[in-house]
Amino acid sequence: MYAQKRLSAPARFLNALWRYKFLYVLTLPALAFTVLFAYVPLSGLIVAFQDYDIWKRFASPWAANFGFAHFIELFQSGPIIESIGKTVLLSSLNLLI
């Protein structure tokens, strides 16, 4: 019996890549879809914590109170508390139905 030559780790990796190349090609649309619709929109979350200026874009300065100035203003207003209460009420009624 002949002893098989043991491949190095990089060679085994490249061998596996070549062997399953069609499976990797099949995963590309799913990967592109995930990046496009799950990760790209996350960059827009930073706008909530800035005094956003359309001309400066993401170089806009941070809002006061460590970026929470807009949230403090929002939750100190009366209508938002009423709106959250109605949302909770409607959701709980929807669970009952």
Write the layout of secondary structure elements.
Layout: H1 9-19, H2 21-39, H3 69-76, H4 78-96
- Major beta sheet, specifics? none
Distance between the termini: 73 Å
Query: Which regions have little confidence, pLDDT < 50, spanning 5+ residues?
Result: none
Please state the overall shape, judged from the principal axes of the Cα atoms. Answer: elongated
Q: Helix/strand-derived class?
A: mainly alpha
- Following the backbone from N to C, one meets helices and strands in this order, namely HHHH
Averaged pLDDT, please? 87
Helix coverage percent: 55-70%
Number of helices: 4
* Residue share in β-strands: under 5%
DSSP summary, beta strand count: 0
What would you say this structure looks like, in words?
By secondary structure, the protein is mainly α. It is 59% helix and 0% strand. It contains four helices and no strands. The radius of gyration is 26 Å and the shape is elongated. The mean pLDDT is 87.
In short:
It contains four helices and no strands. By secondary structure, it is mainly α. It starts with 8 loop residues before the first helix and ends with a helix.
Keywords:
97 residues, 0% strand
